[in-house]
Amino acid sequence: MSGTHCLAEGRRTAIRPYTRADAEEFTTRARESRDMHSPWLFPPDDIRAYAAYAGRLIEDPTKAGFLVCERGGGESGDGEGGAGGRIAGFININNIVGGAFRCGALGYGAFAHAAGRGLMSEGLGLVLRYAFGPLGLHRLEANIQPANVGSLALVERAGFRLEGFSPDFLFIDGAWRDHERWAITAEMLSQDGV
User: Cis (ω within 30 of 0) for the bond into 134?
Assistant: First the structure.
């Protein structure tokens, strides 16, 4: 969606908030990415489900949702400024707690056309700096199924540390799934990182 407010820009990507107007592109990308996402995540792939999903991210103060977009306004991702290019993926911070904790839990996914191109690595770096800057958070956690090698590689590249293992942690795709617990703090984030 061209002209949407950009929160941060990198060399090839920018992050911006979800809007209700993103429904068509987001759900199209989610349908195109079903095989890649299964069995790890199931982003909304129809307009009604997207409206509820985006509404929670837009309205709930314990959540912050970011779309990772290719820079530029066209299909080519020509590198021009702004977040007007194709949606490459999404990164959400859920369960945000303030006070002495100042922590949130990450959820994220790339779309198939953007997978393996480094766009989510750059986008995650932008979200981390935004979370530890303007959002005032100190710690972010990511809970990842051990066989999800792509997701594990993403957080490792970003500098997260492995903190533990949680059996039967989340109910996904009809069963309780084990997860590895990864985290990063503001102090761990390299100024010239991802």
Answer: no
Closest listed residue to residue 63, CA positions, set 84, 92, 87: 92
Q: For 65-126, what is the HEC assignment? A: EEEEEECCCCCCCCCCCCCCCCEEEEEEEEEEECCCCCEEEEEEEECHHHCCCCHHHHHHHH
Give me the DSSP letters along 129-142.
HHHHTTT---EEEE
Q: Taking the model in full, what pTM does it have?
A: 0.89
Rounded to whole angstroms, the Cα distance separating 42 from 23 reads 15
Of 80, 65, 81, the residue nearest 22 (C-alpha)? 65
* Residue 80 confidence (pLDDT) above 60: no
pLDDT digits (tens, 9 = 90+) for 94-112: 999 999 999 999 999 999 9
- Identify whether the C-beta of residue 9 lies closer than 8 Å to the C-beta of residue 130: no
Bridge partner residues of 108 (DSSP): 91
Instruction: Name 72's Cβ contacts closer than 8 Å, sequence gap at least 6.
Output: 78, 79, 80, 81, 82, 84, 85
- Residues paired with residue 162 on neighbouring β-strands, in sequence order: 182
